[in-house]
Amino acid sequence: MPTTDTCQLTTKDYTILEVIRERHPIRDETFSTILQRKISSAVVMFREDIPANVVTLSSRVAYRVNDGPAETRIVAHDQMRGLVGMLLPITNPRGLALLGLAEGQSMCIPTADGSLETLTVHEVVYQPEAARRERLKLAGVAAPGSYRLGGPGLRVVHRSDEPHDEAQSKVAAAFDAGFDDPGPSAA
Length: 187
Known about the structure:
Elements: E1 7-10, H1 11-23, H2 29-41, E2 42-45, E3 60-65, E4 71-76, E5 87-89, H3 93-98, E6 106-110, E7 116-126, H4 128-138, H5 164-176
Parallel strand pairs: 1-2, 4-5
Antiparallel strand pairs: 3-4, 3-7, 6-7
Helix pairs in contact: 1-2
């Protein structure tokens, strides 16, 4: 069972962790340590490139604590009302620890009593990025990445030799054609 400090995060998930670190004073030393480990060891990827077996925000994940029974939760940005027992927010050390881990990967974290617990990802039951890729594929939309120029996730939406109005309409069209990320508040 591989235990590792490396994780894979989408650009959005990484940005949320950075914001948490920068804007919210963290008094909990355990949480702060896990957050720093995540940020410093992250391999950051575009959502189109994140493997389907990696825990991202809004993923439904089956995991184990030590040798206990598997539990299934949705890794979320924060607690939401009405979903008691279904969510594991990244504001909780366990939720934060699971974010970015792949199936079979583990992370040891300290507990309140000073001992260590090992969290192991058993299965990523649902991942929003993989579901989006599947929807696009079924709809016959060009495969993610087919528009790439110069590297993963990059596309040219403005050229300096185009008139300003034409460039602006291309930027608007780029956002209308597939930018469906509702942002962290929707998580």
